[in-house]
Backbone:
């Protein structure tokens, strides 16, 4: 029987990629609404092809649907062509699986991966036919919740979300659903349910907290206004990743997405301690998955999806203890007549990884990637990026000898303490790599090397040692970029540069407080959606939004904070202590490097989770 | 060895375009552990091709996919096996082993038959006569060099008639020698009868693809 679709054929055939809206993928979950208690609409607030490439979404979908009493369905942001039609014809946003209106659900849950999707969250709530501010929604509307890396500082979107879930879903999210089921059967108001939630670890209900501000705009006081509300919200993480549920039959889209591949998660967390990296801090401690489980999952996943690529993901794959064993196994098992490719992003470039890569990649097409982040050793020490010039030059040299001719280099402009010599060092490092190539004997140099330098702008993030630092202003960013652009020898190096406006906005959101909610609301009202897409991004929407609300963005982005200041996200406990972060900040300023968790423990506080790398000798 | 797989493309699969359909078949073959042959060289890819790609929005009960296999197969088993792994809306109907020197589907195809359900408007025999009594039906089309060219599509309309239930039946040229799209015929049918053409009034369904041999229309998997 044909699936009942929310959109008629004439609408579907007049929009780009109608398959975004069908919910007919391989391994899609279907449940009878009459047999379940909880309807959960899980939203990745961006276009289908982006959301479907995100492994976190797939894990959550699987996790929620493993519960017999729950039906989790997906929602994505409709592309602007469909949105226009929906608004014209008053069509409300719907889920892909049952094609029912979001309004019919118990929960609407967002996974928030980047700040520039905030306006899409508002747009999703609005397209669903609900009020955007939590306080204006009715009892009949779904409960709106959110999680994901951006929600470690939930404050900028606190006014739109009924509750946040801080951490990894596999722990107490189930308790929330159990509680909801009882609540739903017994009847009761939304408010009553939210009060009950206050007993569950990892849950943050913004309405039960009050914020007051000093005259200078800093937070004066942040405290619970309900007796059950916890003063600190502790992040939730899975300690036993090996036995954590993992989707064995993930969805396989019928249209091409950003990544169509099987994903194996080597570990969560990171041992490295780069001082700019939020993921490296909030997901501590590092927790590995057993190599034998990964082998089993690889076989199962290829069988159940038919994909022709396996990707090993983690924040720093070279640190995985079973990497050699795993890659050898995968190459033997899938390499030859099975025609499955292996991809290994985030590898450190050394002899071992070049060996693997030459086995699994077609040299002609692939390139070698380095992310030194800073051009000079001084600045790399400041950010604690444990990679030396020697590593980079010898790595490139080995890669050139191995037949690669393309090298990509990623840097950040505007890192704390950066000066113009550091920036010039970027150009120099690029040139030194070019020269490494010409050191090779002439007969091996078949092609001209292609060196690509890309820079992004540094955005200080909550829960990093740089959470106190001032971000460069837009003008400074652009001056620095222009300076670098002049220094780079364009004959041998290609330079990718950007506009800094988005980074400046990210700088505001990443460390924003509740007052920023109004700005996001105004920007959305002014027409901002899909801000992460340069074809849709319009800075005026935001400029006007700041003005309308009389808020100075520089107060958030380009202001150095004191250690004593109450930061908007202080009430969230990631395990990593504020004292450790500050210690790291002071060491950064002096250019003192810190050891990584593999070599020695810096006592960050994450030991309190009682497992992971902190307990490995 | 080359085989020709006959399949139907129905339901929501009609929204999936040609390239994505091919990608889906690649995954079906992998999941079904089907012994498809790969090309040689740096970047091996499974060897397969579709004769006459179907436009998005059109359903079909007779599509043909030519595939090279590396070992003998049990046809009855593989029909079921592939069907089991195919996405909902793709139905594997038949597999035919092609003789050694068979022409590819692409080179073979001459015509296709469509059944078109008409909504909101009524098409009558008179209307069809108005179109077919013309000496020629000229359309302008961009050629490969992006230059507009005039073409007479009348020789490409082999048959056009009303079915018992008011459906429109169309047998038109398809393939590399001459290609007439059903939408173009419908557009012209509306035009000669002073009706506004709205493509959503017509639900197009492909019933068969043919090649012509000895003046006879033979389905693509009927190998002589
Ligand atoms: S407690 Fe030590 S080993 Fe554990 S994450 Fe922190 S620094 Fe690393």
Residues:
């Amino acid at each position: 029987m044909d699936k009942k679709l929310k959109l008629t054929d004439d609408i579907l055939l007049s929009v780009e990629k109608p398959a975004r809206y069908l919910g007919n993928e391989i391994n899609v979950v279907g449940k009878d609404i009459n047999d379940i208690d909880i309807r959960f609409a899980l939203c990745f607030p961006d276009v289908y092809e982006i959301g479907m490439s995100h492994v976190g979404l797939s894990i959550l979908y699987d996790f929620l649907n493993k519960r017999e009493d729950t039906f989790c369905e997906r929602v994505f942001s409709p592309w602007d062509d469909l949105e226009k039609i929906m608004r014209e014809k008053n069509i409300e946003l719907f889920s892909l699986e049952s094609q029912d209106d979001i309004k019919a659900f118990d929960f609407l849950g967002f996974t928030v991966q980047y700040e520039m999707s905030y306006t899409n969250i508002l747009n999703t709530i609005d397209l669903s036919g609900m009020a955007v501010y939590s306080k204006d929604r009715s009892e009949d509307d779904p409960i709106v919740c959110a999680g994901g890396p951006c929600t470690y500082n939930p404050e900028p979107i606190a006014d739109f979300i009924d509750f946040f879930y801080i951490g990894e879903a596999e722990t107490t999210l189930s308790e929330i659903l159990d509680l909801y089921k009882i609540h739903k059967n017994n009847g009761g108001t939304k408010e009553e349910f939210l009060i009950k939630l206050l007993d569950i670890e990892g849950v943050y209900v913004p309405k039960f907290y009050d914020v007051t501000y000093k005259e200078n705009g800093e937070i004066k006081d942040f405290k619970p206004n309900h007796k059950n509300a916890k003063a600190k919200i502790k992040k939730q993480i899975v300690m036993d990743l090996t036995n954590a549920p993992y989707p064995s039959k993930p969805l396989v889209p019928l249209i091409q997405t950003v990544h169509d591949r099987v994903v194996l998660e080597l570990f969560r967390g990171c041992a490295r301690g780069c001082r700019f990296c939020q993921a490296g801090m909030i997901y501590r401690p590092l927790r590995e998955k057993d190599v034998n489980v990964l082998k089993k999952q690889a076989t199962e996943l290829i069988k159940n999806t038919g994909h022709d690529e396996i990707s090993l993901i983690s924040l720093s794959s070279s640190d995985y203890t079973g990497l050699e064993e795993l890659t050898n196994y995968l190459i033997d098992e899938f390499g030859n007549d099975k025609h499955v490719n292996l991809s290994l992003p985030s590898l450190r470039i050394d002899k071992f990884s070049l060996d693997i890569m030459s086995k699994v990649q077609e040299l002609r097409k692939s390139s070698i990637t380095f992310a030194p982040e800073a051009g000079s050793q001084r600045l790399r020490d400041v950010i604690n990026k444990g990679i030396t010039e020697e590593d980079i030059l010898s790595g490139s040299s080995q890669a050139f000898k191995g037949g690669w001719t393309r090298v990509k280099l990623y840097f950040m402009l505007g890192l704390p303490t950066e000066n113009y010599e550091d920036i010039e060092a970027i150009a120099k490092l690029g040139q030194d790599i070019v020269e490494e190539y010409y050191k090779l004997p002439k007969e091996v140099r078949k092609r001209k090397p292609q060196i690509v330098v890309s820079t992004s702008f540094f955005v200080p993030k909550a829960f990093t040692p740089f959470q106190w630092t001032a971000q460069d202003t837009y003008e400074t960013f652009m001056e620095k970029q222009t300076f670098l652009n002049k220094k780079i020898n364009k004959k041998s190096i290609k330079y990718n540069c950007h506009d800094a406006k988005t980074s400046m906005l990210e700088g505001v959101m990443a460390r924003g407080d509740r007052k920023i909610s109004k700005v996001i609301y105004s920007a959305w009202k002014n027409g901002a959606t899909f801000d992460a897409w340069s074809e849709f991004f319009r800075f005026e929407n935001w400029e006007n939004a700041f003005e309308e609300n009389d808020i100075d963005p520089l107060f958030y982005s380009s202001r150095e904070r004191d250690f004593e200041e109450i930061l908007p996200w202080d009430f969230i406990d990631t395990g990593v202590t504020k004292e450790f972060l500050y210690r790291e900040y002071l060491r950064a300023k002096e250019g003192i490097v810190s050891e990584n968790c593999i070599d020695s423990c810096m006592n960050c506080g994450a030991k309190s989770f009682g497992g992971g790398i902190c307990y490995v000798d | 060895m080359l085989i020709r797989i006959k399949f139907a493309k129905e339901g929501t699969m009609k929204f999936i375009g040609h390239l994505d359909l091919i990608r889906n078949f690649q995954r079906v073959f992998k999941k079904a552990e089907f012994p498809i042959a790969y090309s040689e060289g740096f970047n091996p890819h499974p060897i397969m091709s579709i004769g006459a790609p179907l436009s998005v929005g059109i359903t079909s009960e007779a599509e043909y996919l030519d595939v090279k296999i590396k070992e003998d197969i049990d046809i009855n088993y593989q029909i079921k096996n592939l069907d089991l792994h195919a996405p909902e809306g793709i139905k594997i109907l038949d597999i035919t082993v092609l003789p050694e020197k068979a022409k590819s589907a692409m080179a073979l195809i001459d015509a296709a038959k469509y059944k078109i359900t008409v909504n909101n408007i009524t098409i009558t025999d008179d209307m069809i006569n108005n179109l077919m009594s013309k000496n020629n039906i000229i359309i302008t089309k961009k050629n490969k060099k992006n230059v507009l060219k005039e073409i007479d599509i009348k020789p490409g309309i082999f048959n056009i008639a009303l079915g018992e239930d008011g459906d429109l039946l169309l047998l038109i040229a398809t393939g590399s020698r001459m290609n007439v799209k059903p939408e173009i015929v419908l557009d012209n049918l509306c035009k000669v009868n002073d009706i506004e053409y709205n493509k959503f009034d017509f639900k197009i369904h492909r019933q068969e693809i043919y090649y012509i041999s000895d003046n006879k229309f033979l389905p693509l998997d009927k190998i002589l």
Notes: Chain A has a mean pLDDT of 95.
